[in-house]
Amino acid sequence: MIDFRPIFFTVGILLSTLAIGMVVPAVADLIAGHSDWRVFAGAAGLNGFLGITMLLTMRAGQTSITTRQAFLLTTLSWVVIGVFGALPFAFADLNLSFTDAVFESMSGITTTGATVLTKLDAVPPGILLWRSLLQWFGGIGIIVMAVAILPQLSVGGMQLFRTESSDQSEKVLPRIAQVAAAIGIIYVLLTATCAALYWISGMTGFEAVAHSMTTIATGGFSTRDASVGAFNSAAIDWIAVAFMILGSLPFVLYLRAVRGNLAPLINDSQVRWFLIIAAMAVALLVAWQVLINGVRFGEALRFVSFNAVSIMTGTGYSSADFGLWGAFPVSLFFFLMFVGGCAGSTTCGLKIFRLQVLYAHTVSQISKLMQPHGVFIPHFNRRPIPAGASESVLSFFFLYIMAFGALAIGLGWMGLDFITAVSGAASAIANVGPGLGPVIGPAGNYASLPDAAKWMLSFGMLLGRLELFTVLVLFTPAFWRN
């Protein structure tokens, strides 16, 4: 049988952390004179009580966890935070149903950015700050999970990074706890720098802090209905582009850069591929805007760069309704949803390294067709790709497409039109936020969707955030057998 004590002990730590986090928006509402501070205080008290109770009653002697415990802990952690993080949304003066509250919370903690809230400009500061905090917590959480847990579980080819981290000559720091702590410090410094630049560029202090948390977490929640476009500032747009890209790069490489070794950050093939794909997408869209829509080059470069990087990184900010740009931009944005960023970053999607693995195998297969007796070994980052990692990546792609198809068909069954169903499924599983079309596009939101569709999308967000296998393995009978 699975020993649940270390699992619930860790969940207790998370609930206690969540309670501490709720104090911040409670103080913000108290300063603003809004009565919702009582909601945050009550939710913090409940989370704190449950968390401390688990910490005191679930202490276990073991210092490590098994593979089954790791799978269960990973999924349970995100579900618990999603549900208990929904308490302020459910009881605040927003008139949200429990379904909408969980949807908003799950969208926050998975850094998706899909929202059911309207008239954000009039929403109390505590709720706006809580949405940003959820995404900020989710961003650092997924980085630590990608560094510490997923490589050990061999999920979707992530064992490639376990191989790198186990090489003593490549080791960044001696213990994973030290790596997590160092990444946390860098994460906080990047957030603070982003906030300062936003503030200097014209945002209020509150909006600068809120947007900096969702920018570095590539989450996309904003304090305005018109998202970042409401500020109509070129400086703010370019700052957002820079920090969305920074949030999309492997944070482990930042540790090496801080220690004086910039070469890995510059030479890493993931980083190069990510920047090349982003640059190509921007170039194509700028050409379309200038040649077809007659937009001035400077304006086209600004709006295209912002929205393309936002969608590709899964941030989900918008500064313009790109659905009005034409058929080609909409098609390209749809495929950019799936790309994502680098492994070990805050981004979601397929991840660049998986595209690299598939490309390497494709080149190898073509070479074998041309030279049947030749020996061609696919490489990633100048190292041979182990067979197990290749199989994991191929399995991940198959399951990713199947999950996307199932979500799209399910949403269509619930009465959603084709564009809404397909783009909603893509947005959920890739944790992007906005979809396409007039309903859930950059100018709309998810409020009008039926409750069943919101629950399905919430599950899709969880699947995409936790790399599919981590969640779906819990539904296999073999997982629960001794």
Report the sheet-strand fraction.
Answer: under 5%
Helix fraction by DSSP (H/I, runs of at least 4): 55-70%
Question: Helical segment tally?
Answer: 23
Task: Give the termini distance in whole angstroms.
Answer: 6 Å
Strand order of the largest sheet: 1-2
Shape: globular
Q: Which H/E pattern describes the elements?
A: HHHHHHHHHHHHHHHHHEEHHHHHH
Structural class: mainly alpha
Q: Unreliable segments (pLDDT under 50, ≥5 consecutive)? A: 163-173
Average pLDDT confidence is: 90
Radius of gyration: 22 Å
Number of domains: 2
**Total beta strands:** 2
Biggest sheet architecture? 2 strands, antiparallel
In brief:
With 482 residues, the chain is mainly alpha-helical. The chain has helices at residues 5-32, 37-57, 67-84, 87-91, 98-109, 125-148, 150-153, 159-166, 176-200, 205-216, 234-247, 251-258, 263-267, 269-291, 297-312, 327-339, 352-370, 387-413, 418-429, 437-440, 451-465, 469-472, 477-480; strands at 379-380, 383-384. The protein is globular and about 75 Å long.
Kindly describe this structure.
- There is one protein chain.
- The protein folds into 2 domains: 1-95, no CATH class; 104-119 and 132-482, no CATH class.
- A hairpin with a 2-residue loop joins β1 (379-380) and β2.
- It is mostly helical and 482 residues long.
- The protein has 23 helices and 2 strands.
- α6 (125-148) runs parallel beside α10.
